[in-house]
Amino acid sequence: MDLPGMKPACWILHWFLRKLRLNSIKKLSTIALALGVERTRAELIPFLTDTIYDEDEVLLALAEQLGNLTPLVGGPEYVYFLLPPLESLATVEETVVRDKAVDSLRIIAAQHSPADLEANFVPMVKRLASGDWFTSRTSACGLFGCCYPRVSTPVKAELRSHFRTLCQDDTPMVRRAAASKLGEFAKVVEAEYLKSDLVPMFVSLAQDEQDSVRLLAIEACVSFAILLPTEDTEQLVMPTIRACVEDKSWRVRYMVADKFIEIQNAIGPELSKQDLVTAFQSLLKDGEAEVRAAAAGKVKEFCQNLEPSVQETVIMNQILPCIKELVSDANQHVKSALASVIMGLSPILGKN
User: The pTM is what?
Assistant: First the structure.
């Protein structure tokens, strides 16, 4: 970082010291190896924890290096020694540093024994989830899925409660983080709690006042549709998909169009036939060119995935009329997206 008013000589010294620190961090494993496991645990890790007030480039390198340091602190038995510096890094202002710290925490979570997870890792997740700054709470969202499967039933209940609180957080950035990790969390939660605990979180996020939260909730649609039985998907997920197709924000409708094939594959052919054909028509006729272009690019795959018994009828009667309109669309990106896939309909429809 260039400091305003800094004299050239001072700037060179500042740059040199920054490079020196960065190179030292990148050689962290070498330093730890030279110190040995006991001194690494007793001296190096506390030193690193106390000096998390550096420039972003240095902190990013540190967050990455800490994820690979388990053998050098004595192996999985002592991996919890790496938690304090990573916890601090997970609270900093710079997003890329926090994300890298979360990545490293997810790596070392797998190296904890179940007992150490409950004794050390889960308390850290709780601290992050209830932190005063939104930065720590956003980081916490990415850690539930990696520790939930290996803890006891009472601790699982606490984690679900903490995640629910994050989904209702006052800060949109935290709700966005929760929405982006909800599908991942759903994959590790037991079936009986999926409907009772997580589906209400999903519905709430999908109806959030912020469109940036709603569009991220769409990704969770796919996970829930895969995990839930067909009848529950129809009752609990499809209303949200229909609402998102008609959402007032074009960004939300764009996200539905972009994820449409994933949604189609997740809900299965029967519900696709009932609900998604109409939804797809709506997206192809959307008022925003970006949405039409995203939907147009999915025409071939959508038609291929239709149930064979209705495939030709649906294409001829419901999809082709929309395609004919898009061929003369005023927006070149829409026509380009359609042109790239339209020939793929030929094998489906046959020679006639």
Answer: 0.83
